[in-house]
Input
Amino acid sequence: MIEKKQRVRALGLCSGGLDSILAGMILKKQDIDVTWVSFETPFFTADKSARAARQTGIPLIKKDITDIYLAMLKNPPLGYGKHMNPCRDCHALMFKLAGDMMAQGNYDFLFSGEVAGQRPLSQTKPSLRYVEKQSGFDGLIIRPLSARVLPETDVEKRGLVDRSKLMDFSGRSRKPQIQLARELGIRDYPSPAGGCLLTDKNFSIRLKDLFNHDENVSHNDIHLLKFGRHIRLNETVKIIVGRTQADNQSVMKFHDPEKYAHLDVKDIGSPVILVPADIDNESLKMAAAISVGYTKTPEGQSADVVVTWKDRVEILRVKSIVSSTLRPLMLG
Ligand code: SF4
Output
């Protein structure tokens, strides 16, 4: 009996952007059984990828990699880009993790939507080579949008993919991708910018400060960087001040009573403020005064501030501090 040839199976990194979509579709057109994986951390989600999967019918695996990502992010071998984005080591890690899934899931090779020369640092040809080598899956990674301007991979040499049907895109122009999207009938795709908080200037200032002052960074600590004002009072004390009602709710959602106490001004609408659970008395009084300063209490007048610790509640009577004097202490 002649055994039916199994379809070639490919596992691709997906960001949900047009390049990811096109890379998957190009392989699909070669009758390759394509699956995407989208990794999640507090810095980026799989939301756009989920939309791309619905649109194309390509199955998507979502995987949270926060712990292993944080370990890399604290000390990326090639350092950071303009902000806290370690793009080359980020890609290398993602391909390494996808490669581990490749063996378990019986995939034949890995792919991504990267385009040679599209980004100044992370997608130069040497950067693409770095990622292949560092991932541990050299020869098993193809970039369908740029394959014909890159050296032939083992995947192509073995005939798993028809190289002649892959693309030769390179450089920063998006025109070839937009043209190809039109040919493939893809009309709905997100704009290329955005999506990763590590490329955001203000978020990066807060993250760097966190890494510099806290050896036990938790997932919640990172989520808290996204909300409110962050004010560093001194080397050991940073406080987080909700800016809006929605901020207050988010701050409380990620508030860990083991690590923080929270402050409210009694009987007046006030922002939620988080302070470290091991805060010293002087800093606590200052944080309380700041919380009064963010209410309608007239300047120089006192108010009661409720401090809620994990196991007790305390009330401090303090005078307000004018919030505009805090600007130099603010992070991001
Ligand atoms: S922008 Fe963010 S998700 Fe994308 S490669 Fe860089 S660090 Fe990774």
